[in-house]
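REQUEST FORM: STRUCTURE PREDICTION
Request ID: SP-0412
Submitted by: Lab K.M.
Chain count: 1
Length (residues): 421
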Amino acid sequence: MALTDTKVRSAKPTEKEYSLVDGDGMFLLVKPNGSKYWRFRFRFGGKQHLLAFGIYPEISLADARQKREEARKLVAAGIDPREHKRAEKEEQAKAVFTFEVVAREWHATNKTWSEDHANRVLKSLEDNLFPAIGARKITELGTRDLLAPIKVVELSGRLEVASRLQQRTTAIMRYAVQSGLVDYNPAQEMAGAVASANRKHRPALELKRIPELLHKIDGYTGRPLTRWATELTLLIFIRSSELRFARWSEIDFETSMWTIPSERDPIDGVKHSHRGSKMHTPHLVPLSKQALMILKQIKHFCGEHDLIFIGDHNRRKPMSENTVNSALRVMGYDTKVDVCGHGFRTMACSSLIESGLWSRDAVERQMSHMERNSVRAAYIHKAEHLDERKLMLQWWADFLDANREKGISPFDYAKVNTPVK
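STATUS: Completed
RESULT:
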C-alpha cells in the first residue's frame, strides 16, 4: 500500500534500519537514530541504482513523490537522474560565482607577486571593474559586458591602465575557464579593442654630450650629498628606488660590491621603502674605484645613519625621489626632454654596447633587465657574468673620466682601453 502522511510521521525507529515502501521504486528508510531518508531505486544501463531525494520532514511525502515522477521521466528519456542531479548542483554552485568572487580567487592564486604589486592590481580592479561588473554572474558576462568598464577608463585618457585592465580581465576569465565555471573565455575577443599606450622613453643625452654633463655635475654647488647621488647614479646606473632606499649594510668595501636585496626593511612613514631590486632577486653591483671613493665620502659625511642617502630635513628618511632630477634642472636640463636620472641607464647601456667589448648577457644582467625569453632568462639568472661585469663597471667609470679631459666615443675609447678578460 502507498504511504500516507500519518504513516510517515508516526514511523518509529527500531534497533535496525527498515524501509517503508511507497511504490514505483520509492521508499522511506528509517534509521535507528530516528532519521528518515527518501530513496528511489531504479534501473539504468542494465543496472540497478539508488538515488537520494532528501530527509523527512524537510522533504514531505508530496515533495518526494514529485521528485520520483521527475526521475522516472528522465529514465524514460534515457537520462541518468543521478547525473542530472549532479549537473543541477554544479549549475547552482556557479550561480554564486560573480566576477568579483572569481577575480579575487584569481588574485589570490598569484603567489609570485610582491605585496606592493598585488595591492596595486587589486585596487585597480576595485576602482575600475568591480563597481560595474563585480556583482554580475561569471556565466552571464559576454565580451561587450567585460569591455564596457575598460572603455570608460580608455576614454578618460588612462591608456596604460586600460591596457592592463584588459590583460587582467582576460586572465581572470581564463581562470574561470580553467576552474570549470565557464566553457569559453569571452575576454579574448577584446584583442585590439583598447588603444595601446605608447610607452614614453626616459630622455637621455646623446653620447657626444657626456663631457658637457660631467662638467655640469662637477660644477654643481648644491648639497654635496645630491651631487654624490647624481655622480653615483651615472657610475652604476641603478634605478631611483634602488639608490634612495639603500642601506650601508648592503655595501661591502672589501670586495667592492653592492648587493641590492630583493626586498628591504620598510621605513615607517616612507612609501615604497621596502623596495629592493626591481626584478625581486638580489642584484649585484660591482663598484669601481670611482664609485667606492664617492661612497667613502658619503660615509664620512653621514655614515652614522643606516640609510646612505639621508633626507634633507629628516635624517631617518631617505632623500626625495626627485633629488637627482631637481639637480639636473638646476644644471639647466629639461628632465622631460633633455635627460633625467633614469636616462643615465640608457646612456650607459648604449655606451657599453657601442664599445663592442661586452657580451649582451653581461650588459643585460648589469642593467637588471627582465629577459623575455624564458630559456635565456633561466640561463642569465644562473650565469652572473660577474667577472666580466666588474671589468665593465670599471671601464665605464674610466671612460667617464676620459670624457672629463676630452670628448671620446665609446668605440674609440675601447680601441685603446680594452681590459684583459
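NOTES: DSSP finds 18 helices and seven strands in the chain.
Reviewed by: T.R.
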